[in-house]
Amino acid sequence: VPAWPAAAPAEIGQARAAASRAEAAYLAALRRRHGYHLVSRNCVTEIFRQIDAAFAAAADISKAGAGTAASRARAESIRRLGGHVDAGAGLHFIPAAADLAVAERYAVAARLELPSLRHRRLDLMYQAEPGPLVFLRESNTVTSTAYRRHPEDSVFLFFTEGAVISRPILGALNLVTGIGAAAAGLATLPVDGGGLLRAGLRGVVFSLPELAFFNIRKGSFDAVDSHRDAERAPAGPPGRAAADVESEGDRAAGAAGAR
Question: CA distances (Å), 56 to each of 102, 114, 220, in order?
């Protein structure tokens, strides 16, 4: 087997630099194409955009309608669904507001609830343990056994999804928690490269809607348990699930009338 000639240190350095540039360019392209934005590009807005894209393509294939892709998608949505929801209009980026828009504008025939991984685990816990104990333990991120913080999550203290009346109060506590984490992140900046600072600032941003009774953040998970797996091990070590990406908070199913 022929041996590869040893590369000179200068060549190795140039190759590493070229690989780093290619990696940075690739990541930048991924962010441009698939990047997340709380208001303009979350899973709720993308559901509506995918619906519009599909209807615009269908109109092109059938040669139905004229005008722009947006106008064709709107006309096709009205024809097939009974109405149209604009992903970029109003508060449609908020799952609850999008859900109301769907109920108001679409001809909804039925609603199907797809519980998140965390909710499936909580349902099983409530069946096996005293309700007040489960509520107190699982209502916050410190003592919860159904949730473990993922490094990409924002910093927050309380889950506010089911706490409608007390949501502004809990949101204020989450806001303070995020501000505190961001302040601590300034001190840890040389050590963690700004990780805690960014998580704290995201915590502040995601807490603001809670002050106005809106909930976006749910927490996130990395591995999707099947319903049977969740039933066998309701309190097992959680991963981070696409089903709960809900993550930094948007239950996309709610926007499609499938809360």
Answer: 19, 28, 33
